[in-house]
Amino acid sequence: MDPTRVMRTAGAAGLLAAVLILGGLYLATASGRPGIDAGGEALAAWAQGEEGAIETGVYVLLVPGLLLFLCMFAALAGLLPADAMSTRLATYGALAFFVFFAAAGVLSSTSASAFGFYNGFEDPTAVTVFAGLSAGYHLQFVGVWSLAMTMLATAVGLRNSAAMSSRLLVASIVLAALAVAAAEVGFGVIPCLVWILAVGIGLLRWQPMASVV
Length: 213
Hints:
Blueprint: H1 3-30, H2 40-49, H3 51-77, H4 85-117, H5 127-160, H6 166-183, H7 189-204
Protein backbone atom coordinates (compact mmCIF):
# COMPACT_ATOMS: atom_id res chain seq x y z
CA MET A 1 0.00 0.00 0.00
CA ASP A 2 1.13 3.52 -0.77
CA PRO A 3 2.87 4.89 2.38
CA THR A 4 1.61 8.40 1.70
CA ARG A 5 -1.96 7.19 1.56
CA VAL A 6 -1.48 5.26 4.80
CA MET A 7 -0.11 8.31 6.60
CA ARG A 8 -2.83 10.59 5.35
CA THR A 9 -5.50 8.09 6.33
CA ALA A 10 -3.95 7.91 9.78
CA GLY A 11 -3.91 11.70 9.94
CA ALA A 12 -7.62 11.84 9.14
CA ALA A 13 -8.21 9.21 11.82
CA GLY A 14 -6.36 11.41 14.31
CA LEU A 15 -8.48 14.46 13.52
CA LEU A 16 -11.67 12.46 13.86
CA ALA A 17 -10.37 10.87 17.06
CA ALA A 18 -9.90 14.26 18.71
CA VAL A 19 -13.44 15.31 17.84
CA LEU A 20 -14.98 12.04 19.04
CA ILE A 21 -13.00 12.00 22.30
CA LEU A 22 -13.99 15.57 23.12
CA GLY A 23 -17.64 14.93 22.32
CA GLY A 24 -17.66 11.68 24.24
CA LEU A 25 -16.14 13.21 27.36
CA TYR A 26 -18.61 16.08 27.23
CA LEU A 27 -21.67 13.82 27.01
CA ALA A 28 -20.32 11.35 29.56
CA THR A 29 -19.27 13.76 32.29
CA ALA A 30 -20.40 17.33 31.66
CA SER A 31 -23.62 17.58 29.68
CA GLY A 32 -26.28 19.00 32.00
CA ARG A 33 -24.44 17.90 35.15
CA PRO A 34 -25.26 19.88 38.33
CA GLY A 35 -22.53 22.01 39.84
CA ILE A 36 -19.95 20.66 42.25
CA ASP A 37 -21.95 21.95 45.22
CA ALA A 38 -25.15 20.18 44.17
CA GLY A 39 -26.76 17.73 46.57
CA GLY A 40 -26.92 13.98 46.17
CA GLU A 41 -30.51 13.99 44.93
CA ALA A 42 -29.65 16.38 42.11
CA LEU A 43 -26.71 14.24 40.98
CA ALA A 44 -28.78 11.06 41.18
CA ALA A 45 -31.52 12.69 39.10
CA TRP A 46 -28.91 13.81 36.56
CA ALA A 47 -27.45 10.32 36.18
CA GLN A 48 -30.91 8.81 35.84
CA GLY A 49 -32.16 11.39 33.36
CA GLU A 50 -28.98 11.48 31.25
CA GLU A 51 -28.42 7.71 31.09
CA GLY A 52 -28.83 7.57 27.32
CA ALA A 53 -26.58 10.57 26.64
CA ILE A 54 -23.87 9.28 28.99
CA GLU A 55 -23.78 5.84 27.42
CA THR A 56 -23.84 7.34 23.93
CA GLY A 57 -20.92 9.56 24.86
CA VAL A 58 -18.88 6.62 26.13
CA TYR A 59 -19.68 3.82 23.70
CA VAL A 60 -20.52 5.69 20.50
CA LEU A 61 -18.02 8.56 20.72
CA LEU A 62 -15.27 8.10 23.33
CA VAL A 63 -14.28 4.47 22.78
CA PRO A 64 -14.34 4.67 18.94
CA GLY A 65 -12.33 7.91 19.21
CA LEU A 66 -9.72 6.17 21.35
CA LEU A 67 -9.49 3.32 18.83
CA LEU A 68 -8.95 5.84 16.03
CA PHE A 69 -6.24 7.44 18.18
CA LEU A 70 -4.45 4.07 18.30
CA CYS A 71 -4.71 3.82 14.51
CA MET A 72 -3.12 7.24 14.19
CA PHE A 73 -0.36 6.41 16.65
CA ALA A 74 0.41 3.12 14.87
CA ALA A 75 1.27 5.12 11.76
CA LEU A 76 3.23 7.68 13.77
CA ALA A 77 5.20 4.92 15.50
CA GLY A 78 6.36 3.71 12.09
CA LEU A 79 8.27 6.98 11.73
CA LEU A 80 10.10 6.58 15.05
CA PRO A 81 13.54 4.93 15.33
CA ALA A 82 13.17 1.16 15.56
CA ASP A 83 14.13 -0.44 18.90
CA ALA A 84 14.82 2.95 20.49
CA MET A 85 13.91 3.59 24.12
CA SER A 86 11.89 6.65 23.07
CA THR A 87 9.79 4.50 20.74
CA ARG A 88 8.99 1.99 23.47
CA LEU A 89 8.09 4.75 25.94
CA ALA A 90 5.87 6.47 23.39
CA THR A 91 4.07 3.19 22.70
CA TYR A 92 3.57 2.41 26.37
CA GLY A 93 2.17 5.88 26.97
CA ALA A 94 -0.24 5.68 24.02
CA LEU A 95 -1.57 2.30 25.14
CA ALA A 96 -1.94 3.53 28.72
CA PHE A 97 -3.83 6.61 27.48
CA PHE A 98 -6.27 4.34 25.65
CA VAL A 99 -6.75 1.98 28.59
CA PHE A 100 -7.16 4.63 31.28
CA PHE A 101 -9.52 6.85 29.30
CA ALA A 102 -11.64 3.91 28.15
CA ALA A 103 -11.85 2.64 31.74
CA ALA A 104 -12.71 6.14 32.96
CA GLY A 105 -15.59 6.35 30.51
CA VAL A 106 -16.94 2.93 31.44
CA LEU A 107 -16.81 3.69 35.16
CA SER A 108 -18.44 7.07 34.67
CA SER A 109 -21.33 5.42 32.83
CA THR A 110 -21.76 2.62 35.36
CA SER A 111 -23.89 4.61 37.79
CA ALA A 112 -26.20 5.80 35.01
CA SER A 113 -26.49 2.25 33.68
CA ALA A 114 -27.60 1.04 37.11
CA PHE A 115 -30.75 3.15 36.81
CA GLY A 116 -31.52 1.69 33.39
CA PHE A 117 -30.83 -1.95 34.24
CA TYR A 118 -32.68 -1.97 37.55
CA ASN A 119 -35.97 -0.08 37.53
CA GLY A 120 -36.25 -0.19 41.30
CA PHE A 121 -32.76 1.17 41.91
CA GLU A 122 -32.66 4.29 44.09
CA ASP A 123 -29.62 6.30 45.08
CA PRO A 124 -30.77 9.41 46.98
CA THR A 125 -27.27 10.11 48.29
CA ALA A 126 -25.75 9.61 44.80
CA VAL A 127 -22.89 7.57 46.25
CA THR A 128 -22.64 5.48 43.06
CA VAL A 129 -22.63 8.65 40.95
CA PHE A 130 -19.90 10.21 43.09
CA ALA A 131 -17.85 7.00 43.01
CA GLY A 132 -18.13 6.60 39.24
CA LEU A 133 -17.28 10.21 38.46
CA SER A 134 -14.42 10.27 40.96
CA ALA A 135 -12.90 7.05 39.65
CA GLY A 136 -13.26 8.32 36.09
CA TYR A 137 -11.58 11.60 36.99
CA HIS A 138 -8.57 9.88 38.57
CA LEU A 139 -8.18 7.43 35.70
CA GLN A 140 -8.24 10.32 33.23
CA PHE A 141 -5.58 12.04 35.34
CA VAL A 142 -3.25 9.05 34.93
CA GLY A 143 -4.15 8.85 31.25
CA VAL A 144 -3.11 12.46 30.71
CA TRP A 145 0.26 11.79 32.34
CA SER A 146 0.66 8.75 30.08
CA LEU A 147 0.01 10.73 26.92
CA ALA A 148 2.35 13.47 28.16
CA MET A 149 5.07 10.82 28.25
CA THR A 150 4.11 9.84 24.69
CA MET A 151 4.39 13.48 23.58
CA LEU A 152 7.90 13.79 24.99
CA ALA A 153 9.14 10.39 23.81
CA THR A 154 7.73 10.89 20.32
CA ALA A 155 9.30 14.34 20.04
CA VAL A 156 12.69 12.99 21.14
CA GLY A 157 12.46 10.07 18.70
CA LEU A 158 11.48 12.24 15.75
CA ARG A 159 14.16 14.79 16.60
CA ASN A 160 16.84 12.09 16.81
CA SER A 161 15.84 10.87 13.36
CA ALA A 162 15.90 14.47 12.04
CA ALA A 163 12.17 14.35 11.29
CA MET A 164 11.30 17.24 13.62
CA SER A 165 12.70 20.72 14.05
CA SER A 166 14.05 22.05 17.34
CA ARG A 167 11.15 24.50 17.46
CA LEU A 168 8.58 21.71 17.31
CA LEU A 169 10.54 19.75 19.90
CA VAL A 170 10.26 22.68 22.31
CA ALA A 171 6.55 23.05 21.45
CA SER A 172 5.98 19.38 22.29
CA ILE A 173 7.75 19.77 25.63
CA VAL A 174 5.66 22.82 26.47
CA LEU A 175 2.44 21.05 25.47
CA ALA A 176 3.29 18.01 27.61
CA ALA A 177 4.01 20.30 30.57
CA LEU A 178 0.71 22.11 30.03
CA ALA A 179 -1.15 18.79 29.95
CA VAL A 180 0.35 17.73 33.29
CA ALA A 181 -0.34 21.11 34.88
CA ALA A 182 -3.89 21.34 33.52
CA ALA A 183 -4.64 17.83 34.78
CA GLU A 184 -4.47 19.22 38.31
CA VAL A 185 -7.62 21.26 37.64
CA GLY A 186 -9.40 18.74 35.42
CA PHE A 187 -8.51 20.14 31.99
CA GLY A 188 -5.48 18.04 31.10
CA VAL A 189 -7.29 16.44 28.19
CA ILE A 190 -7.34 19.75 26.28
CA PRO A 191 -3.55 19.87 25.59
CA CYS A 192 -3.76 16.15 24.80
CA LEU A 193 -6.39 16.78 22.15
CA VAL A 194 -4.35 19.67 20.75
CA TRP A 195 -1.41 17.28 20.36
CA ILE A 196 -3.59 14.66 18.67
CA LEU A 197 -4.89 17.30 16.26
CA ALA A 198 -1.37 18.53 15.54
CA VAL A 199 -0.13 15.01 14.81
CA GLY A 200 -3.15 14.33 12.63
CA ILE A 201 -2.52 17.48 10.60
CA GLY A 202 1.16 16.58 10.33
CA LEU A 203 0.36 13.10 9.02
CA LEU A 204 -2.12 14.54 6.51
CA ARG A 205 0.71 16.69 5.16
CA TRP A 206 3.32 13.92 5.32
CA GLN A 207 5.56 13.32 2.36
CA PRO A 208 8.35 10.73 2.00
CA MET A 209 11.67 12.12 3.26
CA ALA A 210 9.87 15.18 4.69
CA SER A 211 9.26 16.30 8.26
CA VAL A 212 6.31 14.72 10.08
CA VAL A 213 4.94 17.78 11.84
